[in-house]
Design a protein that fits this description.
The protein is built from nine helices and 15 strands. It is of the alpha/beta class and 281 residues long. The strands form four sheets. A six-stranded mixed sheet has the order 6-15-13-11-7-8. The chain has helices at residues 13-24, 55-64, 88-101, 105-118, 126-129, 147-165, 188-196, 232-240, 258-268, and strands at 5-9, 29-34, 47-50, 69-73, 122-123, 138-141, 171-175, 178-182, 204-205, 208-209, 212-215, 229-230, 245-249, 254-255, 271-275.
């Protein structure tokens, strides 16, 4: 009997895509929805709701369900650690979590990965749990990017790499070589809304699109957790900001509901492009 996939899930479409794929593939899934970040669409799957501080409880539930592979997916906002309700294992881990959290999100996530590996689980990435999510190389949808767009992709990707090295974010918007925005804790959607409020003279408009959003992993990040993720709303907000397109690192970003993303890009006249790391170095 195949061991079910253990899914530790926050909000959003990503954990839903992983859960449905696990069931469709015949593996099955056991979903632990994180309290305060319960995705309603996951309620139909076997599992339970657990608190963020219940590390021991999570581990015991996954073992009881027979899970071997475990994946973390979904939106979870960083908590106030003082307010967490902890079980014994959570209390033991908390000092390390707080210490590493001061270094950034990636350092914090690495602590969690190591803890689950220590207890015999194989922590896998979202792209391994659902290979169809991974962005391919080249034009994915919409019009072919021109030379100006490609130059902006290179510039935005370099900035995203630099800010990613500081564990700030994974995205950047550049238009005609000018940095319009970098992603931080507000996330991609809010960053794009900021761009839409900038003067059209520096960002383009629907009938004269200029500029790009580039997203890529942080240089040293734990790639099994928190790969850059885009969806239909990303495409729509790129278009609303007057940008020419969205560029993601091929093999290093996830596309949610890809067919719908492609349809939106074609309808709105913006491109989706997968760049290779050596294209932008």
């Amino acid at each position: 009997m195949t061991a079910p996939l253990g899914l530790i899930a926050g909000l959003g479409e990503l954990p839903v895509a992983i859960a449905s794929n696990a069931v469709a593939s015949g593996q099955g899934v056991y979903v632990l929805r994180l309290k305060g970040f319960e995705e309603p669409a996951l309620a139909e799957y076997p599992g339970a709701v657990v608190g963020l501080g219940e590390i021991g409880g999570v581990i015991e539930r996954l073992k009881s369900a027979g899970c071997k592979d475990v994946v973390f997916a979904g939106i979870v906002k960083r908590p106030n650690f003082k307010d967490l309700k902890l079980d014994m294992r959570g209390a033991m881990l908390l000092p390390k979590v707080v210490s590493e959290a001061r270094k950034g999100d990636d350092a914090l996530l690495k602590v969690l990965v190591r803890e689950f590996e220590k207890h015999g689980f194989n922590v896998i990435g979202s792209e391994e749990a659902n290979k169809a999510l991974l962005a391919p190389v080249g034009l994915i949808a919409g019009p072919e990017p021109n030379e100006e767009n490609l130059a902006d992709i290179r510039a935005a990707a370099k900035v995203a790499s630099a800010t990613g090295a500081l564990d700030i974010g994974q995205g950047c918007v550049v238009c005609d070589g000018l940095v319009l925005a970098v992603e931080a804790q507000e996330g991609t959607d809010e960053m794009l809304k900021r761009c839409a409020a900038l003067p059209e003279a520096i960002r383009g408009k629907p009938d004269a699109r200029r500029g790009v959003l580039a997203k890529r992993p942080k240089p040293d990040q734990e790639r099994r957790i928190d790969l850059p993720t885009t969806g239909v709303s990303t495409v729509e907000l790129v278009a609303a900001a007057g940008l020419a397109g969205l560029a993601v690192e091929a093999g290093g970003a996830l596309l949610l509901r890809r067919a719908d993303m492609e349809a939106a890009a074609d309808r709105l006249g913006v491109f989706i492009y997968g760049f290779k790391p050596d294209e932008v170095s």
